[in-house]
Amino acid sequence: MLSTIIAAMLPLVVVFVLGYAAGWRRDFNGEQVGILNRMVMLYAFPLSLFVGIARMPRTILAGQLPLAASVFGIMCVSFGVS
């Protein structure tokens, strides 16, 4: 299970490290860094997580159903309270 999470998040970490290295070398200005961060957080990261979940066997996903339901319930309650 942990290896699946790491495999899904590894591209994000690599992009952040490359972005940090590019900023250190001053290859990008502040505006370009903001655009790159937005692209990674809005597109690359969610798609990477989706692919990681889609590759997971159905039996593992079915075993996590109670946890998912409780997290969903807690999120709905906290939304309602706020």
SSE diagram, text form:
Blueprint: H1 2-24, H2 30-54, H3 58-63, H4 65-81
Helix pairs in contact: 1-2
Structural description of this entry:
There is one protein chain. The chain is mostly helical. About 85% of the residues lie in helices and about 0% in strands. The chain contains 4 helices and no strands. It has helices at about 1-25, 30-55, 60-65, 65-80. α1 (about 1-25) packs antiparallel against α2 (about 30-55). The longest helix is centred in the middle third of the chain and has 25 residues, at about 30-55.
List keywords for this structure.
82 residues, 4 helices, flat
Given helix and strand content, the structural type is mainly alpha
- The string of secondary-structure elements, in order, is HHHH
Query: Which range best describes the helical content: under 10%, 10-25%, 25-40%, 40-55%, 55-70% or over 70%?
Result: over 70%
Which spans have pLDDT < 50 for at least 5 consecutive residues?
none
- Nearest-angstrom radius of gyration? 17 Å
Query: In one word, what is the shape?
Result: flat
**Strand element count:** 0
Strand content: under 5%
Task: Summarize the model shown.
This protein has 82 residues and is mostly helical. The chain is built from four helices and no strands. Helix 1 (2-24) packs antiparallel against helix 2 (30-54).
